[in-house]
User: What shape does this take?
Amino acid sequence: MVAGVVCAVLALLLAVLALLVWRKYFQAPYNYLDAPQKAMSTISTDWESDSPEGPTGPIPVHLFPKHVDRLHADGDIGFSKEYEAIQAQTLLDGYTSDLSQQPENKHKNRYLNIVACEWTTTRWCRFIRAARRRRPDYVNANYVDGYQRPRAYIATQGPLPDTFDAFWRLVWEQNVYIVVMITNLMERGRKKCDQYWPQEGKETYGDIQVTAVGQNVMATYTIRKFCLRQLKVSLLWTRSGAAAPRSAWLYQYHYTSWPDHGIPHSPLPILSFIRKSAAANPEAAGPIVVHCSAGVGRTGTYIVLDSMMRMIRAKGEVNVFGFLKHIRTQRNFLVQTEDQYVFLHDALLEVVESGETDIHSSFLRRYLHNLQTTEQDIYPWYNLDRQFKLINYDQPSNKCMSSGRHPLNVSKNRRPDLLPTELHRVRISPKSGVECSDYVNASWLPGFSKLDEFVVTQHPLTATVADFWQMVWEHNAQTIVLLSPVDDQEYCIFWPMEHVDVECDQFRARFVAETRSDPYVLRDFTLQSPTDEYELAVRIIQCSNWPENCSPIVRVFDLIQVVQRWHLEYQNGPCLVVDRFGGTEAATFCCLTTLMKQLEYESHADVYMYARLYQQRRPEVWRSQDDFLFLYRAVEALVASDAAAGASPPPPDVTDVQRQTLRPILKKGGARQRPASTATVRIPPDGMESVVVDMGEYVT
Assistant: This one.
């Protein structure tokens, strides 16, 4: 009897306990993540034949240059008419966006006038287990078709703090592998996007834990890698009998160089970015998430460019007008301005005329052979003469060179045809009441890691020595590469000598040491402020008559490696490169340094892109086709040397000489001192992961 009562009480207690557990885990409202949904199997291709003149069909690539010229005629009137027709059609279609306007969703829109089209709105799901129903939640995002692929993209706004959780749930649920961000967090003093990812460590957004694995910062964009983990999983729910995945990788491609206003000055960097970010998305992955601030202007530009490049590769045709009309039915205002519409055509014209120039190292020899042997009429993309003409196609106007051609500055230039453009000239602080005193004949050039990684300038004239050292001081240029010869006549000594300082208003330049190690001469200096204890350590690495004195050609990289080892240790400001006129030799040094880094990181080299960017920033640096061909031959020799020698030993590290002399000085520099080396994660565009420890020591 007693035993029966005890058993009954225990059974009752177990039943109560089971009820409590059930209520806690299964009755309460509970979030879960939908399994990735497959894209629709069909896609509309009606847009391919759409044009302002009616169903005339897409434009073959060989006719596209004439088409763009026609649109540019009479002050771009053709572009204006086409863009107005697209906008008018968007208004006529009148797709609803009631979900965006609901009171509980209005605060989830970054801009009141940028809402999501109803029929392509992307939603994540909330499942209330007790009610056995799903309640969709709103995200300002839309599916957008790509070329021959439905729902290839998700176009969305820059996430708000209130939508971080929804954004990461969307990424998880849609099996997203690549997120493309085309805005900075702040632009022109205004917040354009909130930081929705952890800078380091891990953060939890709703049911998704996001861990920052690493990042690699390049000149125009940054790649970040994250590990996503689902924290809350239903023990009952499965789809097709399989449990939901618990973790996934995500790469964020963040383009950081879109101007604060307007459009990019050159389409080459953004085209390279689009190719690499799109190629990184695996075939089995979900849509590419693309966002800027509002998720329409730059976002639409990315989508159209990627889709049209795919169309060019697949069919040799292009139809910007028809495709943009089509995707505007899926998200309003894609390609938000007429300037962006014009930029689309100019960028695609670059694609058509230059072809694929980012070449894998294993194909570089064959590519160079084709450049030199293929007739232009047979295969224009494989023709060196055509590439060189394209590099020199952009001729600067007088307005672009106004400072260098100003009468007060003419005497500061060694050559009247090697001048900096206004947009990319290096400026120094002007002297009060002295006109044109901010001018120095020097240009910013991009590198692989920084947008303004180099300064190229001429050998200082006697009258410009003070301006030269002021530029060094104000721009924190601690490494100077001197390629010009030094004599007592035309190219005189411009640095301080022992017991003879260079006096300037803000600082004093003082000689420290000189070391000769053939063919290099290393000179160390300090620039000291008279008002505080700050000292800037500067080293001049001289190798006169480079690259002419380099034989075989691969030896040109000896100097580059010497400079890099020194510059990397104290890398804060730009590397300042000096030749006689601030021309070919200096630009060649910068370009080969950049290409060497690209080969190391990506196993690719894009000689054409960097050569053209340099020509746009400092016209006339490539004076002949031989100058351009030298870049290809040097890179080819580097690839062949690495393949033949494996891990060949580097040249002697002459930068070690007298380094102890500079260490106490550098410590006084405060923030300008390079921090201790730490291991960083390098993320190649093809998705291969490797860890680089300090100076290129790979651990896989």
In short: The chain has two domains: 49-235+244-354, 390-675.
